[in-house]
Design a protein that fits this description.
It is a single chain. The chain is mostly helical and about 750 residues long. Among the domains are: about 60 residues, Tetratricopeptide repeat domain (Serine Threonine Protein Phosphatase 5, Tetratricopeptide repeat, Alpha Horseshoe), CATH 1.25.40; about 60 residues, Serine Threonine Protein Phosphatase 5, Tetratricopeptide repeat; about 90 residues, Tetratricopeptide repeat domain (Serine Threonine Protein Phosphatase 5, Tetratricopeptide repeat). It is built from 45 helices and no strands. The longest helix has 23 residues. The chain is elongated, with a radius of gyration of 34 Å.
Length: about 750
């Protein structure tokens, strides 16, 4: 080869490399590659991976409309509705002509109950495309949600005129008619959808679901089995059939369907995980854990299996195993969001919420719209006593995913705790919308209605809870509580028994039964019923706690101690049992055991202020006021607004030469938290007395004496306050009354001296 020819080839090769290198770095080329990669992932159902690729494309070109739209589709598949809303909004901003984006955005707005905005998007499309079937369908859905049923049906008739052969149109019309209680017409249109497309599995499933709602079990089963015959390798028909059996209370049949599905379906992760997920979703936790342990052995490289197994280990309090496997995930990827959340959950369960919070924050920094992270961070904030921040995190979780049941449930329970019945009502409505076949939402809404004096509405909701979930104990127990409050005790007793028949471990029902018997002064009957239930469920720690409480009421402290010890053995986190056990030991004279018990409770649950207060009270009774004061101070550090600790701490400071200004601030905290108790009135009054504000002290002490006329301390303090204001007769009256109530009162000598001086004066 000549030198010149070699040189020309070298130059050509270099130029080719430069051109190819330039293409590989061209942003337009790169964004297309990311987009194509994302589409490949999307078609395989790998939506998280697809989303990453679409996001990479958008980083290169923030105005890449198609990538924004496809990213929204990923978020919709992953049920990240907030992210989907953002991307769809960006899509229509960049390209107002994108009708599909307008329609998708409108459907999201319906889910958020923003009906007028959803209608705007439908009409924007119809202005350009008057015959757009999807826009008319969206408008029909808006009208249906606004209870404008006739307008909705009219829109669907327009759709039928435009696209008479579309099976899906009849399905939508039928759904509207179901809402309008036009059951016969709805059935006709569901059938029409199937006739138009007899091999349409979605149409068969919709007809089956309709029959399921009508409790036409055999008709529903027929549709589901036809769907399975058509697509034996498709999961939804089999899960629908399992759901049908569960609705009839035939859990064994449902399980068999899922077992067969696992064998019949292709061996991809989602299919072989079916059985474990079924066990978990039906409350068969031990079976779920066992199934996932087996899956992990069979598929050790399946990250989803590993993560689900970690979650189950956490829920089963097998924290060491969970932490070991989770650490392996984090070692491979320190920013794995799921693994970070699991680490935070483990720390929460170890009562290390202060350590958990920054872990959750790190996860949310990577994935701000992760509703599970926000939910669990809310749990951490509750543990550290920050109720406001917990509520904020749970609100954020439901903003991202309004159908997140756990977060809505947490908000509802928080609302009950706070007495925020507006929040309770809102959370209940969301629970009902998200899980109409679950009893929880109806029970919460009924509670809110009771507060508003809507007894009829509450009763309807309680009954609805039993109708939608006849195999759940929740509705029966809730209705039992209502009957008990109405003094219809025999009905309440029957309902509680129905709840226990459905779930022998359902504590609310057992507690309700015991409460009825105790109201009727029948502790022996309460104990007999408890013993019978414990024989059925010998591992139920809560039942032994309840047994201990009844035995305390009957003054049988020895047996109460044994019951409470058993409760603690069965569940080392049963703090109520541990605290009550220490109290019983103190009553029996085993003070050292009681102290050890309280100290143990503090060690395993340092955020529970009750342990500090109860131990402080015990130490105070033994004359160890310095120890008591230190314990009350620790309680206030754990929960700064805890009124009992604040009250006791304020009083000790006042009695033992503490700073009166600090004592006054604690007394005010106690009064805010316990505004109706004479004890808090007396403590605050005593603080005012020592500050020289005698008139303020007298007002509070008069209230305390009126509420507790047999308390010598209140009379003593009131007498001293009257003495300071030169109201001698009133001072003498209350000082003498203190001695009459308790001649051996600790300040008796001082009182006698003061009374003598008043009599002599």
């Amino acid at each position: 080869m000549t030198k010149s020819r070699w040189l020309r080839r070298l130059v050509a090769a270099v130029l080719t490399a430069i051109v190819l290198g330039g293409c590989s770095r061209d942003p337009n080329v790169m964004k297309q590659k990311y987009f194509q990669s994302g589409t490949q992932y999307f078609e395989k159902g790998k939506y998280r991976e697809a989303a990453i690729q679409y996001q990479n494309a958008i980083k290169l070109d923030p105005r890449y409309t198609e990538a924004h739209y496809q990213l929204a589709q990923c978020f919709l598949k992953m049920e990240l509705l907030n992210g989907a809303f953002t991307e769809l909004s960006r899509t229509v901003d960049l390209n107002p002509q994108n009708s599909k984006a307008h329609i998708d955005l409108g459907n999201l707005l319906i889910a958020a109950r923003e009906f007028e905005k959803a209608e705007e998007h439908a009409r924007l499309v119809l202005l350009r495309e008057p015959d757009n079937v999807d826009a008319h369908t969206l408008l029909a859905r808006v009208y249906a949600k606004q209870n404008n049923i006739q307008a909705s049906i009219n829109e669907m008739k327009t759709v039928l005129q435009l696209a008479p052969g579309r099976s899906g149109t009849y399905l939508t019309l039928a759904a509207v008619q179901v809402n309008a209680k036009q059951i016969a017409e709805a059935e006709e249109n569901f059938k029409k959808a199937v006739q138009l497309d007899p091999k349409s599995v979605p149409a068969l499933l919709a007809l089956g679901d309709f029959y399921l709602q009508q409790h036409r079990w055999s008709d529903a089963e027929q549709q589901y089995r036809r769907a399975i015959e058509l697509e034996p390798k498709n999961r939804p028909p089999r899960t629908a059939l399992a759901r049908l059996y569960l609705a009839q209370g035939q859990k064994a049949k449902a399980e068999q369907v899922v077992v067969e599905a696992k064998k019949a379906l292709p061996s991809d992760s989602e299919n072989y995980r079916m059985l474990g997920d079924f066990y978990f979703n039906t409350g068969q936790f031990d079976k779920a854990l066992s199934e996932y342990a087996s899956l992990y052995q069979e598929h050790p490289k399946d990250l989803r299996v590993k993560k689900n197994y970690v979650q189950l280990l956490i829920l089963g309090d097998r924290l060491d195993e969970a932490a070991r496997l989770n650490d392996e995930v984090l070692k491979a990827n320190a920013k794995d969001v799921d693994a970070l959340i699991y680490e935070g959950q483990i720390l929460n369960r170890q009562q290390r919420a202060n350590d958990a919070i920054p872990i959750f924050q790190a996860a949310l920094k990577t994935e701000p719209d992760n509703e599970v992270g926000h939910y669990n961070m809310g749990i951490a904030f509750i543990q550290v006593g920050n109720m406001a921040q917990a509520e904020s995190e749970w609100r954020e979780a439901v903003r991202i995913r309004p159908t997140m049941v756990a977060a809505q449930q947490a908000l509802a329970e928080l609302a009950l705790r706070k007495g925020d019945f507006e929040l309770l009502d809102k959370s209940a409505e969301q629970l009902i919308a998200g899980e109409p076949d679950s009893p929880s939402g109806y029970v919460f809404r009924a509670t809110a209605r009771l507060v508003r004096k809507d007894s009829a509405g509450a009763e309807a909701d309680f009954k609805k809870a039993t109708e939608v979930a006849p195999q759940s104990p929740k509705g029966y127990a809730a209705l039992g509580r209502l009957r008990a409050s109405q003094k219809r005790l025999s009905e309440a007793e029957r309902l509680y028994e129905q709840a226990l028949n459905r779930d022998p471990n359902y504590f609310d029902a057992m507690q309700g039964l015991v409460s009825i018997y105790m109201q009727q002064k029948q502790p022996a009957k309460a104990l007999a019923r408890l013993n019978a239930q414990i024989a059925k469920t010998p591992s139920n720690s809560a039942y032994y706690l309840l047994q201990g409480m009844v035995l305390i009421d009957t003054k049988d402290l020895e047996k109460a101690e044994a019951a409470l010890q058993k409760a603690g053995e069965l569940n080392k986190n049963n703090f109520d049992a541990l605290l009550l056990l220490a109290k019983v030991q103190n009553l029996r004279g085993s003070v050292d055991q009681a102290v050890a018990g309280y100290e143990h409770s503090i060690q395993i649950n340092p955020r529970d202020v009750r342990s500090y207060v109860l131990l402080g009270t015990l130490e105070e009774s033994r004359g160890n006021w310095q120890k008591a004061q230190a314990l009350y101070q620790k309680a206030m550090q754990a929960e700064p607004d805890y009124p009992v600790a604040a009250n006791n701490l304020a009083y000790l400071l006042l009695e033992h030469g503490g700073n009166p200004d600090v004592a006054l601030s604690y007394a005010q905290v106690a009064r805010r938290g316990m505004p109706d108790t004479p004890n808090s009135a007396d403590t605050l009054a005593w603080a005012y007395y020592q500050k020289g504000a005698y008139a303020l002290a007298i007002d509070l002490l008069e209230e305390a004496v009126k509420k507790a006329p047999q308390n010598p301390t209140y009379h003593y303090h009131l007498g001293l306050a009257y003495l300071k204001t030169n109201k001698r007769a009133q001072a003498k009256e209350h000082l003498e009354r203190a001695l009459q109530i308790n001649p051996k009162y600790p300040h008796a000598d001082e009182i006698r001296k003061a009374v003598s001086e008043l009599a002599g004066g």
